[in-house]
Structures are given as C-alpha cells and as structure tokens.
Amino acid sequence: MIPARKSTTPIPHARAHFYGLLARHTRPRPLTSVSSWSDKYRVLTSKGSGEPGSWRTDRTPYLREILDQLSANNATQRIVLMFAAQLGKTEVGLNWIGYVMQHAPAPMLVVLPTLEVRKRWVRQRLDPLLQETPIIRSLFDSRAKRDAGNAEDLKDFPGGMLVIGGANSPASLASMPIRYVLCDEVDRFPWEVGQEGDPLGLIDERTKTFPRRKVLLVSTPTVKGASRIETEYDKSDAREYHVPCPHCGEYQVLRWRHDDGRYGLTHNDATGAVYYHCKECGERIEEHHKPDMLARGRWIARHPGRDVRGYHLSGLYSPIGLGFTWRELWQKWQEAHGDTANLKRFINTTLGESWEEQGDNIEDLALLARLEEYPEKPPMRLITAGVDVQKDRLEMTIDGWAAGEECWTLDHVILPGDTARPEVWEDLAEAMTDAGVQYAGIDSGFNTSMVYAYCEKRRWCVAMKGVTGMGRPLIEDEKKRRQRLRTRRKKGAPVEPIGVDQGKVLLYARLKLLQPGPGYVHFPSDAAFDDEYFAQLAAEKLVTKIKGTRPFQEWVQTRPRNETLDCKVYSLAAMRLAGKDLAAPQAIQTQSRPQLPRRVGGLSRR
Ligand SMILES: [Zn+2]
User: Fold this and answer.
1) 459 within 8 A of 598, measured Cβ to Cβ
2) Alpha helices by DSSP H, 70-195
3) Contact call for residues 399 and 385 (beta carbons, < 8 A)
4) Which residues are placed with Cβ below 5 angstroms of ligand 1, an ion?
5) Distance CA 511, CA 521 (A)
6) Which helix (H) or strand (E) is 383 found in, with range?
7) How far is CA 340 from CA 85, 336, 343, 352, in A?
8) Which of 23, 81, 160, 469 is surrounded by the fewest CB atoms within 10 Å?
9) Quick check: pTM over 0.90?
10) Rounded to the nearest whole angstrom, what is the distance from the C-alpha of residue 301 to the centroid of ligand 1?
11) CA of 281 relative to ligand 1 center, distance in Å
12) For 461-471, what is each residue's pLDDT tens digit?
C-alpha cells in the first residue's frame, strides 16, 4: 500500500527547502526502523539482485542490527562495514536510501570511488531501487519529469535530496551541509583529491552542522596497513558475528583459521564433502546447519563502549543461495594458491580480510633449522665481507658466492674494541686476511674517519652509507656511479650509497628460498650461527604505513639489535660492487682476486 503523503504534506521545492534549513516543518510521524521499513516496502528486482521479490531481513539475519543502527531515532553516528563480497552489504545502503527518501527525509550524500563507478552504480543499483520499489517510485512519478534536479548526480525528493559523488572529484562531494553519508567501497577511494586532501575528511566536514548525523562506511578490505576500512574498523567497537554450534551450542565466530592454526573448513578427500569444525567440540558443522545458526547469531563487540560501530563478516557466513557455499570456498582457496593475485583477491573479497604483503618478514627459527655441514670446498668464486661499526666493536659477516649469486655464508665475527682507536681495525685487517676476503663493504655511519682511513689503504674495501627509501637501488646504476666517482675523486674518499631497503627486500626474498641453487643462502653448522644471529637477521619487518594520506612501505625493527642483518646487506652490496657477473660461466675464477673498480690513489695491501 502506498500512503498518500504527498497530497497531505506541503513540500516546498526541495532545494529551496534545503537552503532554508531543513525538514523541521515536515509532519512529525512515528519513526519505524530501517529493517521494518525494508521488510514492508523494499522490492528487489532481477536487475539489481539475484533473488528478486520482497526484501526479507530474515534472509540475512546479521544485517538486522546494522540496518537498525541507521534508523533516524538511533543515536549511532558512524558505522563501519568490513564485509566480504556477496553478503548483502550493498543492500544495506540501498535500504537506507529508500528509508531516508520515503520515511525520514534529509539531505543525503552517496560517495563512490570515482565518477565512472558512480555512473555504473546509479544504473545498476540506484535506478532499480527508484523504479521498482513502488513506494519510492511514487515519490518521483509526478516530479521526475518536470524536475531538472533528477539527474545522475542528484535526486530531489520531498523533504530532502540525494547527492551522488565520486571520491576522485571534490566538486562532486557537495558543498551544502549533509546529514546522512554513505561511502561505498572506501578502500578504492583515492588518498588525496587535488588540493583538498583526503576525501573522507572532506566528507566529514560536510556533516558537522548536524548533531544527529550518520556516516556509513562500506568496503571489502585491501592491503594491510593501507586499508581505509580496516583502519576505521580497528577504531570501532569491532563487532563479530557469533553463531551457536548445532552440536554443543557454543557461540563462536566462524573463522577460516582457528587461533591454533587449524582451518575451520575441512575437506574429506574420499567423499568430497566440506564441513566446518566446531572450535569447541570439534564436531562437523554442515552447510545445512547454517540458516539456523545465522538466525540465532548475535554481534559481539571486541571493544565494547566505543562510539563507532564496526562490523566484520567473512564469506563463511554467506546464506545458502546468496554467495559461495563452503565447498565452493574450499575450491577457490585451492585454486588461489600459487598465484599471489588470486590469493589476495580470495583473502580480500571472499574472506573480507586485509592482505598482508608477502616477502616482508622471515622466520628466524625456520632459518636456524637449516644449518648444514658444508662440503670440503663449496663452489665459490668470490669472497666478500660486510662490516658494521659500533662504538665498542666491529661485526663482520663473510660470504662466499657461487653462480647465480648462491651464497655460502662463511662466518660472522665480532671484534671487540674501541672503534675510535686503531687496534680493533688491525684486528679487522687480520680477520679479513685469514678469511681470504676479496671485497668488502664497511658501514661509514659511525667513526667515519676511521672507516675512510681503513678503506684508503685497501682499494678492495669500500666505505658504504646506507640510504633509505624503497626507490633507491641496492647499488647505483653504472652510469650514475661513474659520474659520481669522477667528481668525487678530487674531493677524497668516495662513499658508496647503498639502497638498504631494497637490499633487505632482496635478502629476505632469498632467505625464503627452500631449494639450494641460484639465490639460495646457506648457513654452516658453526657456533657463530646461533639463536641470536638469526634473531638479528630476522629483526626487521616490512610494513605499509600512511604518511599524510599516502601509503608507503618501510622497514621497522622488531627488536633492538640487527647488526647481522646490516652486515649481510653490506656483504650483498659488496658482491654486486665487485662487478663480477657470477652467473656468467667465463667469470669462474675460483679464489682469484676479481677485477675490481679501482679508486685513484688506492693502495692494495697485497
Ligand atoms: Zn560444538
């Protein structure tokens, strides 16, 4: 039934109404909730939904609480939905729009990632709502044709207006005050638009004049640390949907992996059946148990009391017939392995979780487990050293290099002594001789003059200076380096700039290789390679951070000492600087000193 509210309520032109500051004189009426409104009026069309017909909140019971947070008389101002795909999160926004238009009119803004996405969203989502839900259609029947305001970016309705913007276009984000905002797919929003900065900040500004405003942020997450929806969810009360086990009744969150590392879903190879293991009783939960479990489920906050409501839901909760079955999820998981892009998509859209970049950290214990007895003569062509200078000691890693930059780690030595005095440097010279080091890189960040003095006497030793920034290559490209050497030579000792961030990326990637061969790093069963050595080697982690509004990657230390890692990176750089193409067969010159770039005035010790 369609109530004849237009004929009984005097409505001025919506826009005039707007600037005249708002719906005060709209006839007061009892407010219903968004879920009740949806159950009563919302119609899903075959154009916008796989299940055309009347909306039933019972079909997706987990949406009821969320819908009702959007009701006009509810005090919550910010709601965050971090959802996997195909769980009905788009319908939440559409139900809310219908409710606002027909039942609780106010100025509303919908923001899509870009103007192009806006076009598609209006055609595929909004237009079906406006045309196929009778009570909404009735709002526009008489007005649409004569109202110029009914455009792609603007829908006037009695008592309010719907503005539709793209986060990449500040001009489209409306300059008037807005009470209700829906931001869809916020993880695809740009981090900055023009001179205006972060579009989310811009949008928040628009709502400030309304004490009873609401902002709904919706998205599947993307990359950990650079995901807007995850950042917002982490600030929220972080709700998860707990459902009861049909066997033991224990309420639990359905997880892809339990905390102890076991997978929630299990596949029976013999029968092909896929089922979920209750984390409490271990019994099999079957797909057909799901409707009842969902109906009895409840949202529980991990951080009760916070103002922002956050909801996370994975694809494991998909109602039967709406999204993927557990069996399909299992198949997708199997298929996704071995392909990073597929796996990322699976984690983001199917599980609704953020993706942690791989190759960013290593397991020290896994490295400790692969110490090996070296052959009598490992097939090395070059021996390098990387030296780290501390106040009270020098630390040096010695590496042997084979074809394909396969690395035989030979030793790690610690030489105690005041590095401002010459004695410890004499020890270093002796240690290098003993190990047969052919090329070495020494960190010049500390006691620089001593490092220079040492290298000055040894043309095969170079002072190195670590420079940070993911854009800096491990060693300079040849042309740039030649230019620099030409100008610097006159001024004294050249220092090699080492792109340590790239060095760590390369080293960590290689430490993850499991098969000896090109790039593989060997470690000998030797006292020098103990827990502490590997703990330092694994001391850093690549994380994605946000500076201002831009995401960037940075290595962070997870423990105070990391000298063995620095030594290894300098040794790697020394190998590259030695200028030998170790992959080329003609370069095989086992144990002979390679042809090295010489510095003018450098004196060979030997
Ligand atoms: Zn159970």
Assistant:
1) yes
2) 89-102, 115-121, 127-132, 134-141
3) yes
4) 245, 247-248, 278, 280-281
5) 6
6) strand 382-389
7) 19, 8, 5, 16
8) 469
9) no
10) 22
11) 4
12) 999 999 988 77
